[in-house]
Amino acid sequence: MSRDYANRAPRSKGRGSNKNARSPGHKPWIALIVVVALVAGFGYFLWTIKGSADQVEPARAETKAGKPKKDPNALPPQPQEEWTYLKELENKQVEVDVPPPETLRSTGPYQMQCGSFREESQAEKMKAVIAFQGMEAQIRKVQGGSGIWYKVVIGPYERKRDAERARHKLQAIGMNTCQIWLWQN
């Protein structure tokens, strides 16, 4: 279906084609009445507010004349303390059982365990990585409740601080599994 737009009759620009024209039933005086009513209502509202403010002002003036003026920057009085635990704590005695310094330190050499494997080949690989860092590791074969385990152990260290230095050296290469314990044969 084709249309011939070139030979089409021009649209008429008469009164009947204007879509924005007012409808015959439109009455402008209704809008004017609504606007006047709104303005009158708003004026009445303002007049009632002003009237109520005039009635309140004399009452305020009477109360201000009867009382002495207070300093607006003055602080309120300090409240009374209701808590009794502060006084109780001043006289409280605390008893603490502190063990002697000898028992605080665990005695004996330290070891560092870096892994525990089911297969000896995995333990040998970890031992090789540790050897590249200049440390000598041992592999211990242990019979556990769930079978045989191969533990990779470094040590003994006389002081825990020495074991911690070695652990930090291994952490620098990404080996974060090492734990420091007391030496066990």
UniProtKB/TrEMBL annotation:
Compositional bias (Basic and acidic residues): 59-72
User: Where is region (Disordered) located?
Assistant: 1-23, 59-82
Which Pfam families does its entry note?
A: SPOR
Q: Name one GO molecular function term.
A: peptidoglycan binding
List, alphabetically, the InterPro entries matched.
Answer: Cell_div_SPOR-domain (IPR052521), SPOR-like_dom (IPR007730), SPOR-like_sf (IPR036680)
Where do the TM regions start and end?
29-47
Q: Where is the SPOR domain?
A: 104-184
Which UniProt key words apply to this protein?
Membrane, Transmembrane, Transmembrane helix
Q: Does the keyword Lipid biosynthesis apply?
A: no
Q: What is this protein called?
A: Sporulation related
